[in-house]
Amino acid sequence: EAQVTQNPRYLITVTGKKLTVTCSQNMNHEYMSWYRQDPGLGLRQIYYSMNVEVTDKGDVPEGYKVSRKEKRNFPLILESPSPNQTSLYFCASSPGTGLPISNYGYTFGSGTRLTVV
Amino acid sequence: AQKITQTQPGMFVQEKEAVTLDCTYDTSDPSYGLFWYKQPSSGEMIFLIYQGSYDQQNATEGRYSLNFQKARKSANLVISASQLGDSAMYFCAMREGSGGGADGLTFGKGTHLIIQP
User: Which of A11, A65, B38, B51 is geometrically suited to a Cys-Cys bond with B34, CB 3.0 to 4.6 A?
Assistant: First the structure.
């Protein structure tokens, strides 16, 4: 089954304790992206990647890191989490070959609900 | 300025009635795609329907249709014969460009739709 898999689904952690949220897709998609969702704000992009070793900042990148060493994986790293990073996080992927890319939507993972206390 | 505007934070609709969820967008890119996603209370993001900027006809997918008015920059979602299972958050989103620049979906803040029996 074509899917984006995020882990964990739920995570409660303490301020300052480094954590990684994993994301993997099995559709051979070039584009991958991380979003956070907060009440009243919709979804906002944190980082995106157009292919292996190519990443760039989205709208709210502060406090986050990403890497894209393999095409299928795109982990989100919080080096020193703070309570304002408590949110619902989504990983998503999209095809990138064949223009225009605006024709393609993103497939989303099931989400990771993170609480930082 | 907001790129995607959803002016209805919440809506109550009687079961079996048709529903129109509003979405206006702002872009100077001639190539863009417009997407609607449904987010039920379980949290996952479910793709509903897509409209490309060059499409001549309004998109339809089962009970979902998109009322695309390019000159007015609006892309309203119409749900015919609403069902109780349609109760959810609905997000309008846009992806711009032909590739090579910044990428990702820009989301509106969402409309919380509640279908009443």
Answer: B51
